Amino acid sequence: MGPLTDLPVSQVPPQGPPWCDTGFNKSRREGGWLSTTLGLASPVDLIAARVDCERLAYPTGAEIFTCGQPAAAIFGVRQGRVELIDPSGNRLSYRPGEVFSYEDIAWREGRHRNVAVARTPVELVKLSRLHFLNLLHNHPTLAVMLICQQHERMREQRNSGTICY
C-alpha cells in the first residue's frame, strides 16, 4: 500500500479524490492537499530549491517567451501573474505557486505553443528540461501535484463557464 492509501479517513478532504481536492487557494500557494498532508514541498518550491534553477524577474508587459521559440525549460511563478496567449487569442493566467510550459517540453516539436507575458511584475524560477526530468525522477509525487494543478484549473474553468465541452 502506498502513502495515499494508508491515510486515516479523518485526513481525507470531503470532496473528490484526496490527492486532487486541493481547494482553490491552497493549490496555488501551498502546494495543495497532497503537499500539506504529506509534508511535501510545492512544485515551485521543489524547483526553487534546485541549485541549477534560474531566478528571473520581468516587468509588467514583458514577453517571457514567444510562440515557436524552442521550449527548453519550465517556469514556476513565485510572485505576480503570467498570461499565456495561444495563436487563437485564448488566454490562461498563472498565479504564484503554479508551474507553466511543462506541456511544451513534453510535446515532440519542443517549441512553445503560446506567448507568455508578464501581466504584473513577476518573479519566476526556470529549470531546464533535463533538470526537470531529473527532478521528476527524484520526486515522482511532483507529477501528481502538477496533474492536480491542471485538474483544479479545469474545475475552475468549468465552474466559471469559461470552458466548453
Q: How would you concisely characterize the structure shown here?
A:
The protein is of the alpha+beta class and 165 residues long. It has helices spanning 24-29, 32-38, 43-48, 102-106, 129-138, 141-160, and strands at 54-58, 63-65, 73-79, 82-85, 91-94, 99-100, 115-118, 122-128.
Protein described:
The chain has 165 residues and is of the alpha+beta class. It has a single domain (15-160), classed as Sandwich (Jelly Rolls). 33% of the residues lie in helices and 22% in strands. The protein has six helices and eight strands, in the order αααββββββαββαα. The strands form two sheets. It has a four-stranded antiparallel β-sheet. It has a four-stranded antiparallel β-sheet with strand order 2-7-4-5, with no helix packed on it. It is globular and about 35 Å long. The N and C termini lie far apart (36 Å). The relative contact order is 0.19. The model is unreliable at 1-38 (pLDDT under 50).
